[in-house]
Amino acid sequence: MSQYPPISEQLDDIEAARDEGRRKMDWARQHMPILNALREEFERDQPFADQRIGMAMHVEAKTANLVELLADGGAEVAITGCNPLSTHDDVSAALDTHENITSYAKRGVGDEEYYDAIEAVIDIEPTITVDDGMDMVAAIHEDHPELIDSIVGGAEETTTGVHRLRAMDDDDALDYPVFAVNDTPMKRLFDNVHGTGESSLATIAMTTNLSYAGKNVVVAGYGDCGRGVAKKASGQNADVIVTEVEPRRALEAHMEGYDVMPMSEAAEVGDVFLTVTGNRDVITAEHFERMKDGVLLANAGHFDIEVDLDALSDMAVDQYEARDGVEAYEMDDGRRLNVLAEGRLVNLASPIALGHPVEVMDQSFGVQAVCVRELVENGGAYDAGVHEVPDELDREVAEIKLAAEGVDYDSLTDAQTEYMGSWQHGT
Ligand code: NAI
């Protein structure tokens, strides 16, 4: 058994932390109609009675509402963070007061504590896992394979986690079913596009007190997240430059009117750099050498490996905290390159970061919640491996949201349904 203590045993002023965490959760809850609708169902039906859910996610106010929803639906839940810097300790403390929840998440932990906390979560012997980045699934497969037989399945929140799971599945190494929540329209088209775009840009602006207007903003990676960042930076009067490695994505960015060029060229003209590739070594020493004085370097990809901070540190003659959440690296020619949030996902790891807007996380976590319900109801029907979320579940979440927003929409007539399903109607 892990000796790692829950957050309530780690904070000094636990009462004050709990109150503040609860206040943040209540605010988010007011703006989460999907989770609130599911709450009515889950409190009534108790679908998760007898389930133990192990979670590794960004522990902040929106996630906390998902966690409480699952606990109020009868589950015993243990949770920790999925990034050392994204936890809000007060929210973690508020969660830990729930009789069905133990929270081990704490901001600013080192590598060893980070993995000790994951071990502590695994101690509940989960029947279901909910991950953001796949660290929980990896720890169970590597160190606790004896638990796999009793695990019904899991759900994965983000692109990088789904990539890792698919790689594991390709190697026949994934031994229980996991839903790729990230890949659903209700998650990807809103959370990745709008959420990452809005929250990353807002966090950079608030952290630095600088404007985008008239600046060259370099977006590395034109996937779902990059598309949103580029659009919203452009809406704030930035000149957007996109770097890509995939020709169709590069062409799409070009046709949207952005400048597309290799990072080696973008490095010379960029004022703000934001990496969202999910890949490693996107901005490296050869790029740092060419950058202008005063540039801002930020990452919104899942891991802190997109900007090569080891190389930057080696090149710097001086390094100091220029502002809260901004580390300046001074080169021998006097140029200062400013790194935000230690190169970790800026919209969650910056000191002032709040993560995505509440509304988009309501959608993502609505999909998570119905996936957990699906695992309990029909988990036996899924083989080990990565699974797409059944479309009717994603539609269910969209319908709840549209109803909450008072938005009505059309339905197919019988004739239209027949026509759409037929190959016999031609010219
Ligand atoms: P995606 O797969 O849709 O897009 C990534 C893009 O980066 C692809 O077009 C790929 O060709 C490109 N790329 C790969 N290597 C590159 C390189 N060296 N240079 C330039 N472009 C490169 O993935 P998505 O959904 O946009 O996610 C990107 C990352 O953001 C992932 O790590 C994901 O987990 C993370 N994420 C972060 C969020 C946040 O809150 N900060 C929210 C959602 C996702």
Describe what is shown at a glance.
The protein contains 17 helices and 15 strands. The protein has helices at 14-30, 33-45, 61-72, 89-96, 111-122, 135-143, 159-170, 185-208, 224-235, 247-255, 263-269, 285-288, 309-315, 346-349, 358-378, 391-405, 414-420; strands spanning 52-56, 76-80, 101-103, 128-131, 153-156, 177-180, 216-220, 239-243, 259-260, 272-275, 296-299, 318-323, 326-330, 336-340, 385-387.
Query: What are the bound molecules?
Result: 1,4-dihydronicotinamide adenine dinucleotide
Q: Unreliable runs, pLDDT <50, ≥5 residues?
A: none
Tell me the span between the first and last alpha carbons.
70 Å
* Category from helices, strands and their pairing: alpha/beta
Q: What is the fold named in CATH at topology level of the largest domain?
A: Rossmann fold
Mean pLDDT: 97
CATH-level-4 superfamily name of the largest domain:
Adenosylhomocysteinase-like
- Cα-atom Rg, whole angstroms? 22 Å
Question: How is the main sheet built?
Answer: 8 strands, mixed
Q: Percent range for helical residues?
A: 40-55%
Give the total of beta strands.
15
Total number of helices: 17
The number of distinct structural domains comes to 2
Q: Bin the strand percentage.
A: 5-15%
